[in-house]
Description:
Layout: H1 22-31, H2 38-51, E1 55-59, H3 62-72, E2 80-84, H4 89-97, E3 101-105, H5 116-121, E4 127-133, E5 152-155, E6 163-164, E7 167-168, E8 175-179, E9 192-196, H6 199-209, H7 227-237, H8 240-258, E10 278-281, H9 286-295, H10 308-312, H11 319-327, E11 328-331, H12 339-354
Helix pairs in contact: 2-7, 3-4, 3-6, 9-12
The structure holds pyridoxal-5'-phosphate.
Pyridoxal-5'-phosphate is lined by residues 61-63, 88, 90-91, 133, 155, 157-158, 179, 181, 192.
Amino acid sequence: MSLNSDQKKIYQYDTTFSPSSLSEIKKIFSSGQISIGNYQEKLKNQLEKITGCKYVFLTNSGTTGLHLALLAVGTSKNNNVIMPSYLCEEVLNAVKYTQAAPKFVDINSTNYSIDLQKARKSINKNTSAIIVPYQYGDLVDIKILKDSKIPVIEDICHCTGGKNSQKPLGSIGSIGMTSFNDRKFLDGGYGGAVFTNNIEYARKIKSLLSLSGNKKYKINYNYSTPNLASYIIHEKSKKLNHDIKQRRKIADYYFKSFQKSELTIRYESVKNSFFYRFMIDVPNDKHNFIKKMASLGIVCGIGVDFPLHKMYGSKENLPNTDLAVKNSVALPIRPNLSNSELRKISTAVKKSLYA
Ligand SMILES: Cc1ncc(COP(=O)(O)O)c(C=O)c1O
């Protein structure tokens, strides 16, 4: 059953795929190129343009892309990796695959992304990398980390195709990665990529992905995106810019619509985010608000429901993270929302807040 099978409800994500692409999918099936084929190269070329990176490697998830990025910058068991706690568990998994320890820092009070001043202060001699996810697509300027000499891994899972001051996200730090899971801008079911302009990192990743063959055994990682998924992702990439514009239009509609409500919306302007999600801070009981919205046919997202530092059992004091967990709710912002659906959401928010 598709996520969107109940047409009366308004969902967060749209996982459907345009029927016009089905004839090419049939061809891929009949050519026997489900695993390996020319769409992998096409997708890589497309991602080079999107990310502004010379070296792109396809992976089977964002988690495995991040694992390779961490290994490429030399992360191992005696290291720590700086990362936010307001984040999904998969990122912590990638850090743990390398046996390094996470070092959690808070997010900003003005958006949902990592506080880079605090990240900078957390660096010590064992730090191997700083992971900077643009959470929900919210921009932060990683230039302030440049002179720290610590590799910065840009996690662009929530903003593939985005730019900061004309520079493609993913090409600003030392190395970048993204995900193509079924909730992301480029949804291929599962999949991911890791990319860089640094030739040393690229060589390392190439070697990590290659079998030893008949040379001396070394461990390698079987992490590729299949050709069929590459086709789907490549097809969706043609609409990426259009979809980002749509997301920003919807965000603008929400801003205007909720200006006079008692909601807190943590954005300076639509230019500071790519709106993977549109978050609102609900003043009282967010779970009750979500329930009321559901009864009006709107499926809201919960955001991060349990911060990683608490899950991991570490003792940092992260007040902005705690507040975001307590209050933040995601409204649907998928690019194909109609005007009447938007009006329905806006009315439902007001009713659920004040009823
Ligand atoms: C910010 C962020 N980073 C990494 C990941 C991991 O990606 P994947 O689910 O493809 O492993 C996700 C997944 O949802 C994510 O949202």
